[in-house]
Amino acid sequence: MNPMTLAVAGVAALAILVIAVGVASSGSSGISDRLERYASAGGGKKKGAGAGQGPISDLIAQSQALANLNKVVEGRDFGANLSREIARADLKLKPSEFLFIWAGSIIGVPVLMIIFGFFFKALQSPIALLIGAMVGFLLPRFWLNRRKGGRLNSFNKQLPDTITLIANALRAGS
Fold this sequence. Notes:
Helices cover 77% and strands 0% of the residues.
């Protein structure tokens, strides 16, 4: 090997290393900030989640208790099934969030019945409250199944047009 060839190769390798370090240390944080601003839902606004600012959905999403509950729920069979049902209904909820909605519905409907019971005395009876709890139990699943059915119906309405489009494309290709 010629020493001149080794020297040129060493200088070229050093130049490539200097260029790589320069690119890595250059203003990539500015690019990252701009990308984060456009990727975030807030449009670049800084949110003080620790200070209790921002929408309630952001505060709920950052809850450690909810994250732990979500890990436990998703690890179970019913959590995986519930997650699949939520995805089929095209809802942007985690299984633990749906379970909180479900529990809130079970408690909330009888509470509303007690409040309205001041105007209608029949709503304060224990049987009516039990029926209200049953309605609260069934309401979220009914909503989930209705959303799932609506999505399936819209898919079925688009299916014949899609099959026709694919058939015409195959005919044009042959």
